[in-house]
């Protein structure tokens, strides 16, 4: 091993949750210690954690791009501060998953450049329908993400809730904030958007495809 490689192997990565032991480079199962809580994750299901972190990172990245598109169109309107507040929370979500990607050595989805463009286009396109269109998009996306997070919570709870306690805390917190965004969208006339039911259904179908692809690729 080169000197650079040895130095990299000895490096310690830091999470908001605490400092982690370096992870083994190979194998389907890994061990991690969260020193902040004293909890040790021994022999975690690497395949499941890898899939969860990759797709959640992609989802939060896409959400950031959607809000960026909405702000590009509606940022100077009366609803701009509302969108900005939700976007700021999504930035925090993305930051956390960026940290988890590094800590668990999870590769990002290869579709990131695509989600970059599609997310912004979806946000800007629905915002061009007016405040109601932007909020309809928010309701559709956040409902889909919350449902997806609930599925992940069930998966981890069925496997070992104590072992995945801190990851569950992250997912639950973000799920609750996505539901807050969903409710904000409804409070700001999402259902008055043109062809609301159709628009919501189309966006949520796209979300399901995005989740499926980002988990696998």
Concise summary:
It is an enzyme of class 1 (oxidoreductase). The protein is mostly helical and 217 residues long.
Q: What layout of secondary structure does this protein have?
A:
Blueprint: H1 3-10, E1 14-15, E2 18-19, E3 29-34, E4 39-45, H2 46-74, H3 80-103, H4 112-127, H5 131-159, H6 165-187, H7 196-216
Helix pairs in contact: 2-3, 2-4, 2-5, 2-7, 3-6, 4-5, 5-6, 5-7
Membrane topology: Peripheral membrane protein
Binding site for Fe cation 2: 90, 142, 178, 181
GO biological process, one term: determination of adult lifespan
Order of helices and strands: HEEEEHHHHHH
Main pleated sheet: 2 strands, antiparallel
Quaternary structure of the protein: single chain
CATH fold node name: Ferritin
Share of residues in helices = 55-70%
Total helical elements: 7
Q: What Rg is obtained from the alpha carbons, in whole angstroms?
A: 19 Å
> How much β-strand is present in the residues?
5-15%
Structural class computed from helices and strand pairing: mainly alpha
Catalytic activity: a 5-methoxy-2-methyl-3-(all-trans-polyprenyl)benzene-1,4-diol + AH2 + O2 = a 3-demethylubiquinol + A + H2O
Cofactor: Fe cation
GO biological process, one term: regulation of reactive oxygen species metabolic process
InterPro entries: Ferritin-like_SF (IPR009078), Ubq_synth_Coq7 (IPR011566)
């Amino acid at each position: 091993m080169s000197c650079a490689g040895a130095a990299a192997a000895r490096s310690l990565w830091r999470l908001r949750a605490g400092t982690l032991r370096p992870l083994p480079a190979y194998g389907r199962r890994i061990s991690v210690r969260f020193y902040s809580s004293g909890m040790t994750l021994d022999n975690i299901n690497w395949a499941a954690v890898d899939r969860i972190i990759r797709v959640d990172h992609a989802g939060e990245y896409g959400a950031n791009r959607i809000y960026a598109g909405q702000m590009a169109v509606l940022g100077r309107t009366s609803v701009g501060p509302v969108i900005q507040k939700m976007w700021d929370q999504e930035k925090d979500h993305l930051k956390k998953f960026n940290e988890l990607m590094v800590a668990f050595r999870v590769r990002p989805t290869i579709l990131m450049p695509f989600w970059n463009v599609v997310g912004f286009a979806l946000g800007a396109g629905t915002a061009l329908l007016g405040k109601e269109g932007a909020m309809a998009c928010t309701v559709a996306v956040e409902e889909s993400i919350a449902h997806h997070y609930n599925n992940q919570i069930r998966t981890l709870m069925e496997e070992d809730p104590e072992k995945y306690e801190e990851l569950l805390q992250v997912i639950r917190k973000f799920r609750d904030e996505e539901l807050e965004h969903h409710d904000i969208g409804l409070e700001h006339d999402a259902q008055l958007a043109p062809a609301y039911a159709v628009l919501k259904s189309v966006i949520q179908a796209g979300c399901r495809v995005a989740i499926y692809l980002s988990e696998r690729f």
